[in-house]
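thread from #wetlab-drylab

HS: before we spend reagent money on co-crystallization trials with adenosine monophosphate, can we at least see a predicted complex? here's what I'd submit
DV: go for it
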Amino acid sequence: MTMISVAEAQQRILSSFSPTDSISIPLDWSTGHVLAQDIHAPVDLPLFDNSAMDGFAVLAQDTCLASPEHPVILSVVADIPAGDGARVNITHGTAARIMTGALIPGGADSVVMIEETDYGSSQPGDPIPGRVAIHKPVEPGTNIRKKGDDIHSGQIAIKKGSQLRPQDLGLLAMFGMATIPIHRSPRLAIFSSGDELISLETPLSLGSIRDANTYTLSSLAELAGAEVIRLGIAKDDRVAIIRLLDQAVDKNVDMIVSSAGISVGAFDFIRDVVNQHGNLDFWRVNVRPGKPFAFGNYRNIPFFGLPGNPVSAFVTFELFIRPVLKKMGGSDDILRPRIRVRLLEDIVSDGRESYLRANVEERDGVLFARLTGHQGSGNILSLVQANALLILPSGVKSLPAGTNLEAMLLQ
Ligand code: AMP
Ligand code: MG
């Protein structure tokens, strides 16, 4: 099999996935999910004309001569707390005490804030005064939040494809929407492979290492909106690998992701097994780190074989799986945004399209980048210290300090 480019691999992978079905979930659970339909306002917001201040609802005309020296005296004919739905009317010469958010009484066209009356130092619980002295004129409309000012019924409020944020939940609650149409989370089964791998519960023995990839990859998948089924660790033998792959099939997942055992080692059986019970669309991508990446299907379930080295597994997940999860989840922005950064040091690679661990920092409006250290594909510390991956196009083996290039920001 020939080695393909990152762009071709991405394109071939993405074209074989579509967005998942729409389902309804409680508003409470919807943070981070992606809307499956446009949301049109079902009501006007505000729902009714209401007061923006604690004060007195008046007819603006009555206040036009008011000043602190010559206040206008109005008789207070009603008290309107927030939530009171009783219809009240005021006429010339009268006012109603009103609280923020309360329904504007009929006849009133403005609200004088309490601080501009002789009632300014009132305390919670004070009874309504018989009369109020107004110290300042108000224009019609002052301190009134008009019905529909924010949004009119029927107007589009949040677009399909938006990932729901806390403020979106607030608006949906104002609309009275208890359930929200979102895309079902893609289901991803994951396992690690290798005779050397042990779980966190098992005591270390010489030659063995902890299974790190299950944690990194599951976490990446969950942040990209997937529901993850962790299958554990397969030994380097065909039967053990098939057993976990079949478990994934039984669980009816949307995709299977494995790490390690996909290269050219004497114990790398995964490609063999997948070819036997499915097929490999491609194996090997012109990328550093992450060359021995495979994509295909196992018993008709899409299969991703990631390299075992922790940084290779991370980078290939970012490049080839995260965009799929975003697409399946119905998201509008599938690829991570890229930024332009300026190198603070010379960098080298081997001519493959390279993703180098770096730290990007803004100084005087320019984003500067410096490598975080050792770029070996097993060196997870330099990935932990990085906030970006610098992208060297294929064919480029070195770049001098001062060069501008593209980078991908990590979370
Ligand atoms: P392989 O592709 O199986 O040759 O693995 C490449 C390297 O990645 C080896 O050094 C493995 O020990 C290491 N490796 C494989 N799987 C994991 C894992 N789940 N966590 C940490 N390191 C791993
Ligand atoms: Mg191995």
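DV: The radius of gyration is 32 Å.
HS: ok that's useful, forwarding to the group
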